[in-house]
Structure formats: C-alpha cells, structure tokens
Amino acid sequence: MTFARAARDTGSHCQGYSFFVAGVVMVEQTEAGAEVVLQILAELLGPGAAAHARMTPDARFDRDLGLDSLGRMELYRRVEDRFGVALPEQRLVELNSVRELWQVVAAARTGALGTIGRADLPPPPGAGTPAQATTITDVLRWHAEHQGSRRYLTFFEDHGDGPTLSFGELYARSAETAAGLQAAGVEPGDRVALMLPTCLEYFFAFFGTLLAGAVPVPVYPPARRSELEDHMRRQGGILENAGAQVLITVPEGRALARLTRAMVPSLREVLCVGELAGKSAALQPVTRHAGDLALLQYTSGSTGAPKGVMLSNANLLSNIRTAAGVLGATGDDVFVSWLPLYHDMGLIGACLATLYVGAQLVIMSPLRFLLRPQRWLWAIHRHRGTLSAAPNFAYELCLSKIDDKSLEGLDLGSWRATLNGAEAISARSMEGFCERFARYGFRREAMYPVYGLAENSVALAFPKPGSLPRVDVVQREALARRGLAVPAAADDPGALRFVCCGEAIPGHEIRIVDAAGVEVGEREQGRIQFRGPSATAGYYRNPEATRRLIRGSWLETGDLGYMAGGGLHITGRSKDIVIRNGRNIYPEEIEHAVGEIPGVRRGRVAVFGSPEPASGRERLVVVAEAHPAHTTAPEQLIPAINRVCSEVAGSPPDVAMLVPGGTILKTSSGKLRREACRALYEQGALGRAPPRPWRQFASLLLRALPGALSRLRRSLGVWAYNGYAWTVIGLLRAALWAGVMAWPGQDGRWRMAHGAARAALRLVGAAPRIVNAERLHGLRRPLVVVANHSSYLDVVLLAALLPWPASFVAMRELGQHYWTQRFYARIGTLFVEREDFTASVRDAARITAALRAGTSLVVLPEGRLASIADLLPFRSGAFVAAVETGAAILPVTLVGAHAFMKGNRRLLRRGPLAIHVGEPIVPDASPDDRWLEAQALGARARETIARTLAAADESR
C-alpha cells in the first residue's frame, strides 16, 4: 500500500495538487553520486509564509519549515501525485529534511528504492558559511549539522594543547545548559548575566543562553581584592539596569554573587554551568528572529557609567559578515586570541566571527597573556595562526616586556592580519612592533589599524586589505587652536601623529560634523558619526543616553577625528579633551609622555580637566602612579612631570599628583576611567588607600542586608500562599475525582469539572477577568476552541470558561497511568499522538469523526506544554478537521497563566488572570484547496491570539 493510499484510508480528503509553484530547485547529480534532483516546496505553506525564506535543501521539516505530521503527510501525497511515484511509508517516517525526501523520490523514479537507505544519502555540503542564517543560534546549528566533528576551539597551553571542542560538542553542551536554564524558569527575552573567566563553561553559558531564547549579559569577574567594593557596585549597577533574572558564575564566585543578588531585585538565581548541565530536562526549541535582541554589550565606562548597548541578531550578523568579507576570512583561518570574552572585540570579533566562518579559535586567558606576552606570539607560531586582534597596549607589551631570548625560533610567517583597535593607537608602538617582529616573519601589511565601538556591534572602519599602515603627521597648533589637521614638515619636532584607521566597512557610513551637526570638509576636526545595519537601536532602559546617542539617522561615537585621503583619523574622546586658553589639549598625548618618565608607571597616568571651585576655570590635572621599583624621590618626579607637560601642551599642569600603585582606575578592557578618577579627585579621595578587603566585604554585606530582608519577606509570603492554595486544590481535586468516577452521564461529569475549576480559581484568589464573554452564547456547535498553552493552569481556566460540554484533545502521555487515564476518559478527553508519524495521522481522523458526531473540542494547538512564554507554531490537525466538517474555530487567549504558574512547575505566584474570547472563524464551505484553507484558519487563529497577547504585554 502506498503512503498516499494509507493517508486517504485514515480520513484525509484534502484536495489534489493544484499546480507546482516556483521554488523547485534542480540539483545536478555528480559522477560521485552526490547529486540530488528536484528539491521542492509547494504552495503547501501558503503564500507569504515566513518559512519560504528557509526553503533550502537542508531545511528541516519541523524546525525550519514548521511542518507537523499532517503537513508532512500532505507534502508526501502531493509529491506522489506530481511525480507519479509510490513512496514507502517506512522510509518517509524517518525523513527530516527536503534533501532526504528528494533522495527517496529520485530512488523511487529510478527503481532503486531497495538499495538506498539513510546511511546512503548524499553527504551535506562541506565546510562553508551559513549565509542564510538569521540568528546566531542558526549559525551554531548549521555548523553542528554540517561539520559537527570539526574542531572549533582549542585552549592554548605552554606544552601541548589544552581542552578542545568541536562544533557538535559545543552545540550539545550548550543545548544541555539551555535546557537547564529553561528548567530554572528562564524564558525568551530574559536577561542572563555571565560572570565567568575565559573557560569552556563560558561558551556553554553564552550559547546556552541564546538557545534558551534569553539574552546574555557579559560582565567581568573581580580582578583584585582591593577593588572589590568598586567592582561589585559597578556590576550591581549593570545587573540592575539589565534586569537580569539569572547570574551564571563559577563556584568560587558564589559568595560575591549572592551579595549582588541581595542588591538586585530582579535577580532570582545564582547558578553554575555544571548545575545547569546536570538538570534532566529536554531543550524546548525557541523561535528567535533577526530583529530580536541577541546581546546586551555594556560599554566599558571609560567616560561614565556603563551603558547597555542593545544588539540584535541582524546587527551582529551584519557586522560579522561584513568584517569577515573585508578580511577574506574563511574556514581555513586560525584566529588566536587572548581577549576577554566579556569585551566586544573578544566576544564578537573573535568568538562569534570565527564561529560564523567556521574557522578554528585558539584561545588563552588575558591573565596568561599579561604574565608572559610571548605566549600570544608562540600560539600563533605553533597553531599557524592567520588572524588575531588586540588593543594597542598589547603591541606595546610585546615591544617592552619580551626579550630576544624568549623569541628564538619564532616564526610569524602565517600571520596575515592582526587588528589593532579598541583604544587609541600609538603610531610609535605600531611601527615599533612591525619593525621588531619583521625579523620573525611578520609582514607590515598584516598590521590593520581599525576603529570600532560597541554601538556598531564592534567593527566600523577597516583599512584596505594589503595596504601598508599609514600615519598622518599634522601641525600641533593648527589642530589645537583651529581644529585643522594641517600636514606638518618632516622635521617638525612638535608635530602630532595620528594613525589612519581606514574607511567605513561596506554598507556603513562615517561622517565628521561640527558642533551644529553640519558635515565638515577634508582635514577638519569634528565629531565622528556613523550609520549602517550593524548600528544599535539604543541603550537598554536608558532613554536619556539613547537620545544623546542618536541624531536622526546618524549615531554619535563620542570621538573626535578628521578624514584625510579617504581615511579616518581619531584625535581623542570628545568628553576627555581639556580646553585651556582656547586650546584643545589631548589627554592621551600627555599621558603617554609622562609615562615615559623614569620612576612613573607606564600606562598608569590619568589626565583630565576639573573646574576650579572659586572661578569655575577648568584646571589641567595630571595624576601619575610612582613606580615601586624606582627610588626617584617625588620632589624630583613632579618637576619632571611639569616639564614634560609644558613641552607637550605648551604650559605646565595646574595640578600634578603622585599616587600609590593601584590608584588609577581602569575598565575591564584596560581603558583609563578618567571620569571616575576626576570624581575621586574632586572628592579628595584620589590616592587614599582603599579599605582592607574585609572592610569592603562588610560594607557590601550592610548594603545588601535590606534587599535580602525584603526578598526573604516576599519568599515567606509566596510559600504561605502556596501552602494554602495547594491544600484547597488537593481537596477539590479529590472530591472531583470521586464525583466524576461515580456520575453516570457525560454532561453531568462536565458540569462537575466546570464547577470545580471555577471554585478552585475563586478560592485561591485567581478568578480570571473574562473579556467578550457574550461571544460564548448563541454559538452554533460543535466548534473547535483553540488557545495558547504555557501552563498547567490553562486547562483549569478553559474548563472554568466554557458553559457547555466539550472534549479536551490531549497528548497520549497524560493517559499512560491507569487512574489518570480513567479520569480523563470519563470527562471525554481524546488522546492523540504527538510524535509518532502514522499514529498522529490516524488520530486526526478520530478528531474529525468526533466533530462530525457533534462534540465540541478544546485544543491547545501548540502541541505541548513548554517552559517558555513564547507562542509556538500551531499544529494542523484541529484546523484540518474544522475544514472537513465546517466547524467554526473559536480563538481564546489566556493572559497571565504563565506568570501565575510557570510551565509545569508547581510554585504559584499570584497575579492578574484574564481570558479573551475572540470572534469565531468560520471556514470556507467549498475551498479550492482544503489544506491551504486549514493553514489559513490556523494562521488567523494564531494571529488573533498573538495580537491579544502583545496588547496585554503593552498594557502592563
């Protein structure tokens, strides 16, 4: 018996194939047998379906195309009719993709069905890029399916390789973490903070958060015990702004994280990756879209409080694709990185970019690099690294901290591109690095001075591939007083040197504007603005900062610069520039010059402006840390600082201070926090020794105490309410079970269930508000009631709503136990198979027969109870039955049930409940194509429910 005949015998009477739509792709077969013929997707999904964009040979029926068992049955039937073949049912139940289906069709047409099996299917395409991916999780799945055994990640060790990870292993471990997050109550759109060092668990936590549909919020772990209080205050501010519900950290960080939890009201759980992976739960698939928020990347806070940059999947993929195209990055590349994973260059530029192109990522912790910078270079040597990236200070460290003996035998000939960005680029450091390491095979054209910022995902300006790095030499006075970058003479000792960062990446634009927002000309300094598909929509929960960021279609970078020869040159941060006597003073230049004084710690100098209390005149303040290894007396260093400042800025500073080591504050990425240093200076606290760690810990405890007491009070209230509610529910359930088992008539048993549901909701203070209740009366029955499904409470709400008898359609697993099966059967429940292909086809016929017999049905078309609040794709069975019988569809939207009782968890949290009764949807009595009519019914019902849910969310 062919599959088509078997389907017809089970009651499917859908109309035959109408016409073959555009979209059938011919894939020519090679002599090696890897060819596949005739890939198709017909009008089956209906015009305008979102899945049309995912019609590829490897599209998965369930995940990508949204085809349930009935949808696949209809597809197979139409394929049989179109090509005049009989497809064997035992093969079809195993198929998962369009490619596999058409391999069976081709075998059937050539009579080779007896020789082809799943193991003989042609291999999927080789390594490449998932060009059609719309989300980061799509990229991960693509690589796991197409090259799961290929190595993605290697941890660098001094001797031999550290832990490694393939694409398949990364997906599997991340999926385990995602399932654990869902079991812990994480829902799509929730923010999950990651306070983890560079380790395997970071990758599982990050991608696991994305697979769970949540939004990762990278934060950095504390670096020094002496900065504990400042660190926790800053991170607590980030977590509070993000509204993070879960914090993932290492076991050693639990104590500090719990202190943070007490200070952040939204934070429910502090978890470790090992705990999440150990939860015995299956991952509930989550549908995410290109425009959905994918990442909250907090700015470093070098010029103020960190701000959460909102980056969508579309933003990230646009930036990654464009930057990879400029670099010519492919799966053959090896990216070597020590960059921290909580920073945009390390996370997006290294981790996500290599994932996208399928390249290998060789990684080490930032601390290992800082202790011995030569490790970075030897990792490139050993793994034949081709790509890397680092801030300017890393190249400076390689110049100053590595002796020649540590480099014997080093070969950097494989290194074709290294990005230099994330902070001001020093021409001296860049040129010195190129010159010194040329003897080890480093090519000057491999140095890429770049410009980027979190507000544009990461990359904004790149030089042209193969070009040599350029340095522009300009007159100091012309730039300082008139804002003009006038070329200087070669022998000008006071000239300024600015590195060219290239031009805007394809699809993006950069312009320079004056104070009035008018674009300026070549070599005129002004504010740098940009726009393009990688640009953020703004800062999370910070409308004031967003208003300052966005100027019409352009976004502010906060930097000053000029264009020359088509290239962008950065002159400094607009907030950091000190205006003195009508002259612009650039802090970076003074900081670098003072850092060269013997006895001053290089990189530990902060220059900023501060108003004089009496006159308001801006003072120039220079603060430097004294080097502990030098014996130079302070009375000698201060004159040296004044002299150097006079040489650079034209006059000595108003204030020059020497402070102990560890005083100058920096961000997690190593940038100076000039704003924070200025605040401490104005408070008179700069240079004061920080409190001992135990005092800081005690201060944090005192600050966390009110929040902890408030949280305890709320928890006690929740548990007291749950004790009462479940006692009431238990008593009513026992009475209902006894009544249903004893009562002889079905209508009477329904009335008992209806009354018990209403009583339970009223007694536990959860009586719902019913909107448009009048629509329930006067309806022609039988009909099909369809509702969204996110909680066990849904069934109780629907039973309390309907004033007339109806049969619930439930998955067969609910009837596996004898006593529960007896109870459900007594109230008229129809059990259906959700997973077994042929059984679900037979169950569809039973649903149709019940409607023909006059029984109204209650269906939850999402098909299963999920631990998430998203509206899942609807299954087709109820809508096919409605078309076959002419029964109307009654869409019902349940609002608040998920928050009241999340998923299948038993903890109740009181909140408002509402039931919205929609307008009945009547199917066409004589449609041209019954299958398409069923799809249209389902789409209309789902749109009604989704619209009501969205309106309810907006009103809260």
Number of strands: 35
Q: Helical amount among residues, as a percent range?
A: 25-40%
Distance between the termini: 56 Å
Low-confidence stretches: 1-39, 112-127
- Our count of helices gives 29
Can you tell me the CATH topology of the domain at 718-955?
Glycerol-3-phosphate (1)-acyltransferase
Query: What is the quaternary state of this protein?
Result: single chain
Looking at the overall shape, the CATH architecture of the domain at 718-955 is 3-Layer(aba) Sandwich
Strand order, largest beta sheet:
2-1-10-9-11-12-13
Derived from helix and strand composition plus strand pairing, the structural class reads alpha/beta
Characterize the overall form: elongated
Write a structural description.
By secondary structure, this protein is an alpha/beta fold. Among the domains are: 3-120, ACP-like (Non-ribosomal Peptide Synthetase Peptidyl Carrier Protein, Chain A), CATH 1.10.1200.10; 576-690, GMP Synthetase, Chain A, domain 3; 718-955, Glycerol-3-phosphate (1)-acyltransferase, CATH 3.40.1130. Helix content is 38%, strand content 18%. The strands form nine sheets. The chain has a seven-stranded mixed beta sheet with strand order 2-1-10-9-11-12-13, sandwiched between helices. Strands 29-35-34-30-33-31-32 form a seven-stranded mixed beta sheet, with helices on both faces. Strands 19, 20, 21, 22 and 23 form a five-stranded antiparallel beta sheet that branches. Helix 25 links the parallel strand 31 (807-811) and strand 32. Helix 6 (167-183) crosses helix 7 (200-211). The protein is elongated, with a radius of gyration of 33 Å. The chain starts with a helix and ends with a helix. 47% of the residues are buried. The model is unreliable at 1-39 and 112-127 (pLDDT under 50).
